[in-house]
Specification:
The chain is of the alpha/beta class. It is built from 14 helices and 12 strands. It folds into 2 domains: about 140 residues, Rossmann fold (3-Layer(aba) Sandwich), CATH 3.40.50; about 150 residues, NAD(P)-binding Rossmann-like Domain (Rossmann fold, 3-Layer(aba) Sandwich).
Length: about 400
């Protein structure tokens, strides 16, 4: 599998060729400010001691405190976390929010842990990193396999250690713990606003046939939003496999089936296909919402979607980007399309710092303004530079980072 950090660096370099930036800026962004690895010793339910490896990569705080999720996955390693941290720097700059880029993780399959073990592990991560975290320093959030409940444990642990009970040191918390309205659906909702701003510009029909890869927190909300708007979601997948229905899936039934059985596979009235077959489905819009490196040089030729919109981080490799661009298949990049999550996380941080609580209508109103504005900005940048949307998004982000770094040195 391609190293995600190598892909992120390649994307950075390619953007710097699309428009001229200071070589010092590019060199600075190639290196995270800080990489931290910690050992987290946990007493398991059977009395044995296990030591887990945890990470925090603080990539850049040129535009504000480090910001980025915490991922619990058995394949998580330092290179993945470094890539995600770099993309977060770009994403926050694309959304033009006052945050820098960071990311964290633990190498663990959380499905193998009891709830008590999971809580001790989560508190252990905060304990090991408490001196670098904080509302004005580094503000984590949920990511793959981490939940609002885990965020609440972490906020509580941080409060015990430091006395800071504002809750602003972490976002994605439950509402009762200072979470923001709309945070659970924010990533998909932000993407939906981008889709609304770009649909006609990208030549998509009024009613699209949509395929969603990945049926976790972002993917299931996306399937729901597009269905509610009258589009036909014809296929979805999870780690066990994919299901397809040419007439369009009943997403409420898919969600109920997944809750009951642990997978989307096996729902009555659908046929099962492999992930490879999912990629090859004829559709208007393909939404990867799973993990990195799903569309690569070795499988890009099978893609038949008119447009790809990336709800996952890093699903398309640079080689696949080139092949898609050459075929006229637009890729709306992760650092724009999934930036709704970090944007609403930033709103949560602001509410916590100011002791406020905004309504969902206020949250989504602010989110819509940002996502539509930046989608249009990036589309126009791509047109003027005659390049793809990813390079254009990086160009917009790099311009804002260069300005921030210049101001900090004045």
């Amino acid at each position: 599998m391609p190293n995600p950090f190598d892909n992120a660096l390649l994307q950075l370099n390619r953007a710097s060729l699309a428009k001229s930036f200071s070589p010092e800026l590019i060199e600075r962004l190639r290196h995270p400010n800080r990489e931290i690895r910690v050992s987290i010793p946990i007493r398991m339910d059977d009395g044995t001691l296990r030591v887990f490896e945890g990470y925090r990569v603080e990539h850049s705080n040129a535009r504000g405190p480090y910001k980025g999720g915490i991922r619990y996955h058995q394949d998580t390693d330092i290179n993945e976390v470094k890539a995600l941290a770099l993309w977060m720097t770009m994403k926050c700059a694309v959304a033009n929010i006052p945050m820098g880029g960071g990311k964290g993780g633990i190498t663990v399959n959380p499905k193998e842990l009891s709830k008590g073990e999971l809580e001790r592990l989560s508190r252990g991560w905060v304990h090991a990193l408490s001196d670098v975290l904080g509302p004005k320093k580094d503000v984590p959030a949920p990511d793959v396999n981490t939940t609002p409940e885990i965020m609440a444990w972490m906020a509580d642990e941080f409060g015990k250690i430091t006395g800071d009970t504002s809750g602003a040191m972490i976002t994605g918390k439950p509402l009762v713990n200072g979470g923001s309205e709309g945070r659970g659906t924010a990533t998909a909702q932000g993407g939906f606003y981008v889709f609304g701003a770009l649909r006609e510009k990208l030549g998509l029909p009024q009613m699209c046939r949509v395929v969603v890869q990945g049926f976790g927190n972002a993917g299931d909300h996306a399937a729901e939003l597009w269905t509610q708007a009258g589009h036909a979601v014809i296929a979805v997948s999870d780690s066990k496999g994919a299901i397809v229905s040419d007439a369009g899936l009943d997403i409420a039934a898919v969600t109920a089936h997944k809750k009951a059985t642990g997978s989307v596979v096996g729902l009555a009235g659908t046929r099962m296909i492999s992930n490879e077959e999912l990629l090859a489905l004829d559709c208007d819009l393909f939404i990867p919402a799973a993990l990195e490196n799903q569309i690569r040089a070795d499988n890009v030729a099978v893609i038949r979607a008119k447009v790809i919109m990336e709800l996952a981080n890093g699903p398309t490799t640079p080689e696949a980007d080139d092949a898609l661009f050459a075929r006229g298949i637009a890729v709306v990049p992760d650092i724009l399309f999934n930036a709704g999550g970090v944007t609403v996380s930033t709103f949560e941080w602001e509410q916590n710092l100011n002791g406020q609580h905004w309504t969902e209508a206020e949250v989504f109103g602010k989110l819509r303004t940002i996502m539509e504005r930046e989608a249009t900005n990036i589309f126009d940048t791509a047109q003027s530079l005659r390049t793809d949307l990813r390079r254009a998004a990086f160009v917009v982000a790099l311009g804002r980072l260069e300005e921030a770094m210049r101001e900090s040195h004045d």
